[in-house]
Amino acid sequence: MSVMKITFVQRQIFALPGIATMAAAVKRAGHQADVLIENAEKDFERCLAETAPDVIGITICSSDARWLIETLPRVKQATPGAFILVGGIHPTIHPALLEERPEIDAICVGEGEETVVELLDALQASSNSNQSAVSSKQSGGAGKPSELLTAHRLPLTSIKNLYVRREGKIYRNPLRTLISNLDDYPEDREIYFRRYPELSRDSLLQYIFSRGCPYPCSFCVNSTLHRIFKGLGPAQRRKSVDFSIREMKKLQQYYTNAETGFFIDDLFLHDRKWVEEFLPRYREEIGLPFICSAGPKTIDDEMADLLRECGCASVEFGIETGNEEKRRKIFRKTAFTDREFRRQIGLVKSRGIEVYAPSMFVFPTETPADSFRTVELYHELGVDHPFSSFLIPYPDTEIFEIAVRVGAVPAELKAENLPGNYFTESTCRIPRRRIIENIQYLFYFFVRFPCFYHCFRWLVYLPIPLKPVRYFGLFFWFKNWKRMGYLETIRYFWRFRKSR
């Protein structure tokens, strides 16, 4: 029986948890898996061909849409016989991608661990059946290989979460129930370390404990996912404490330079009972200072004490804008009030824990007064690590509908027409945009140095290029928040340079 091989392809130069869990599932099912990071390879096509895949699994977010369009012809040329599967957030919320890109054989809508294994099993069965039919025909039997390859005879057309193109027709298979027990899917990060050993030299031990988020923020994909997967399982699921500790211990053996744990969940503190069980064990068995995220009403005195005792270095609060009304009406963050931010941030800062807070600029209806208010709210809250980005209204999200409704973007805008990152280029067409852009470029220094803000805020009105200052602010924010040295921060930025 032939063994199927899948090569996962991605744009970003990071170890992605989703690919790591799918790789583990693929190998457990008896197939083979490899990974290739396009912008980390000098000769991507040659390397892809050398992996000799039966299936190519390309993982993308909506910010990768333009990259996908540019990369698909190269993939097709390097591996003309491979089955091309595209998964990730973008095809999940925009399944029309399969119709738009004829190079793609199928897309995975939603979680891929079970879907990918079933796809490989189906292709393996088809290959073995076809070979048997050919052998039978050559020996005088009545094999009919052509029938075995028709769409209605292949199980591909019944694999849940798979939208597949077969002989010119698209089959939209039903969605499967969301994975309830995340412990069933460990990570296989070795798939990255074998080809990209530099990834294991990071000082950050990044790990994700949960999937999903219960809040419907308009700029986030989660509100769309709630609609797509309604009735198929809870919005948020979490790995068990025992499983998480075992996984992190295993990762510590690879990340020998790890100095900080970085919990990349949308809302790490959301499940209080789980957190109260996990953190003491983390302190005893892992022992690294850590960075995590909070949500509304997740921190009180008791929780703040626990965070301090267990080594919390920084907590993230998604402030987004200093205008509370627009935070509620434009971003749909109804529970994230200024009062709640003051209460929780005051609790953690009084215990010596630093605060990281992201914000977004050039969003629909924003004014320079709103932008200046964001700076001043950060002063009031004492934010240690201010981060700013431009709002990117990705299609198939609620913020896109809002932006279209107020005339900030055209209704026909597609993901591939948007910037590849949200750091340096804005999208929404709003009055006085240039001034707001300049506030964003200077935001890090405006917040970190209030005297500079009060003395030099007039700089944003001048017709001078302030964009270069943004790169310095981004560098220092990243270095200080993620507790890195200068050389490692430079290495991270160098790694990221090609994925913009």
Structural features, described:
It contains 20 helices and 15 strands. It has two domains: 5-172, Response regulator (Rossmann fold, 3-Layer(aba) Sandwich), CATH 3.40.50; 202-499, TIM Barrel (Alpha-Beta Barrel), CATH 3.20.20.70. The radius of gyration is 24 Å and the shape is globular. By secondary structure, it is α/β, with parallel strands linked by helices. The model is unreliable at 132-153 (pLDDT under 50). The longest helix is centred in the first third of the chain and has 26 residues, at 113-138. Helix 11 (272-285) packs parallel to helix 12 (301-309). The strands form three sheets. A seven-stranded mixed beta sheet has the order 2-1-3-4-5-6-7, with helices on both faces. A six-stranded parallel beta sheet has the order 8-11-12-13-14-15. The chain has a two-stranded antiparallel ribbon with strand order 9-10.
Alpha-carbon Rg, integer: 24 Å
As residue ranges, the low-confidence spans are 132-153
So how many helices? 20
CATH topology of the largest domain: TIM Barrel
Strand order across the largest sheet: 2-1-3-4-5-6-7
Largest sheet: 7 strands, mixed
Average pLDDT over all residues: 92
Q: Which class do the helix and strand fractions yield?
A: alpha/beta
- The helix content is 40-55%
In angstroms, what separates the terminal alpha carbons?
Answer: 42 Å
The top level CATH class name of the largest domain: Alpha Beta
Beta-strand percent range: 5-15%
